[in-house]
């Protein structure tokens, strides 16, 4: 059969730095059966294929409705269905990914002047889930329907010995009761590894720290600080981790989501201050925030403040050297400075956060 695999995020987004795992598994499954598989980079000529698979991760990704209505098209992923996305068929889900699906596309990007580091996840990493699920049930999360963490697949299922590094997409690895055995298997490969989605710092213990920080970790240690109410436990666990590592930890800081669903002016003001307080706590503990904005921040009267804070935090070269105010005062940042000035005029107590220094 002629099979077209479409990574919809690849078409829709200007920057695409991570392969679609479902697309790679579908490709591997069909190639093993002798089917002709192509990575399609547009929505033209789809009637010439026996089957077309379209996958999207991001809800902001748009696909023509007429394409989705075609008889030979199947589509899925969190980008279409968020927490209601249907899993891949079992025989596909547990098939080794086709790590060569993106080869031609990556080669074209490099020929056009792209840097290898920008495409490293396409070329250097074995990628998969060791565990799936989470017990936190955060209302904003695609994993909110899970009630626990389960073993998903052995490392051997997606391990490519020709690739020097390992990347895991686990939702909450340390929530799995069998974490220690699995982590020892990972470390036994001798390869650098990372948990791309981050780890739940609230679950750290001495045993977990000793195992994690003694491994050949690749890149930043990433955790999450999504709720100011967790401040005390977050600080306590940072101090615990410091017994085992002096690394500068990175924390995802989710913002712009109203857990009480009010979305009123009072929420938007308080949400900005909650974010600034989390940033202060992380600064105090020599950790880096990475701001992740819920899409409804676009509705906020302080939309520009969210953007300015995120751009400052998410560029460590600026965050480590300049205060938020100094960042906004840089040449070319006049609009950012106006956002901060207007916010401080309304809420003078914000000024001290604008002058915090890492």
What's this, in brief?
With 358 residues, this protein is α/β, with parallel strands linked by helices.
Structural topology:
Blueprint: E1 2-7, H1 8-12, H2 21-32, E2 36-39, E3 51-55, H3 65-68, E4 73-76, H4 78-81, H5 90-93, H6 103-111, H7 120-123, E5 125-128, E6 131-132, E7 150-151, E8 165-168, H8 179-188, E9 193-195, H9 206-213, E10 222-224, H10 231-241, E11 250-255, H11 265-284, E12 288-293, H12 303-313, H13 316-319, H14 324-328, H15 334-346, H16 351-354
Parallel strand pairs: 1-2, 1-3, 3-4, 5-8, 8-9, 10-11, 11-12
Antiparallel strand pairs: 6-7
Helix pairs in contact: 12-15
Give structural notes.
The protein is an alpha/beta fold and 358 residues long. The strands form four sheets. It has a four-stranded parallel β-sheet. Strand 8, helix 8 and strand 9 form a beta-alpha-beta unit. Helix 12 crosses helix 15.
Distance between the termini: 57 Å
Taking pLDDT < 50 over at least 5 consecutive residues as the criterion, the unreliable ranges are: none
Q: What is the number of strand segments?
A: 12
Mean of pLDDT: 97
Q: What characteristics describe this protein?
A:
358 residues; alpha/beta; 4-stranded parallel beta sheet; 3-stranded parallel beta sheet; 16 helices; 36% helix
């Amino acid at each position: 059969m002629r099979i077209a695999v479409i990574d919809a995020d690849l078409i829709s987004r200007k920057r695409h730095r991570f392969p679609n795992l479902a697309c790679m598994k579908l490709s591997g499954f069909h190639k093993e059966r002798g089917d002709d598989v192509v990575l399609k980079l547009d929505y033209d000529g789809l009637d010439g294929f026996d089957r077309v698979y379209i996958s999207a991760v991001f809800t902001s990704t748009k696909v023509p409705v007429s394409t989705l209505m075609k008889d030979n098209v199947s589509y899925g992923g969190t980008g279409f269905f968020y927490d209601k996305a249907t899993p891949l068929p079992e025989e596909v889900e547990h098939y080794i990914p086709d790590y060569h699906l993106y080869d031609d596309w990556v080669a074209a990007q490099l020929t056009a002047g792209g840097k290898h580091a920008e495409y490293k996840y396409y070329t250097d990493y074995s990628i998969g889930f060791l565990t799936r699920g989470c017990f936190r049930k955060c209302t904003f999360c695609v994993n909110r329907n899970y009630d626990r963490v389960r073993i998903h697949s052995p490392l051997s299922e997606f391990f490519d010995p020709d690739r020097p590094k390992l990347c895991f997409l686990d939702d909450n690895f340390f929530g799995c009761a069998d974490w220690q055995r699995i982590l020892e298997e990972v470390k036994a490969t001798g390869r650098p590894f990372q948990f791309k989605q981050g780890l739940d710092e609230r679950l750290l213990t001495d045993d977990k720290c000793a195992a994690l920080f003694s491994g050949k970790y690749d890149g930043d240690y990433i955790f999450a600080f999504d709720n100011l109410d967790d401040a005390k436990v977050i600080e306590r666990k940072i101090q615990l981790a410091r017994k085992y590592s002096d690394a500068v930890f990175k924390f995802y800081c989710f913002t712009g989501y109203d857990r009480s669903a009010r979305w009123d002016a009072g929420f938007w003001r308080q949400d900005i201050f909650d974010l600034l307080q989390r940033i202060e706590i992380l600064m105090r503990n020599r950790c880096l925030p990475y701001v992740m904005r819920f899409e409804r921040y676009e509705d906020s009267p302080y939309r520009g403040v969210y953007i300015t804070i995120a751009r400052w935090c998410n560029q460590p070269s600026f965050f480590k050297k300049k205060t938020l105010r100094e960042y906004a005062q840089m040449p070319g940042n006049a609009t950012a400075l106006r956002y901060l000035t207007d916010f401080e005029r309304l809420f003078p107590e914000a000024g001290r956060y604008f002058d915090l220094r890492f």
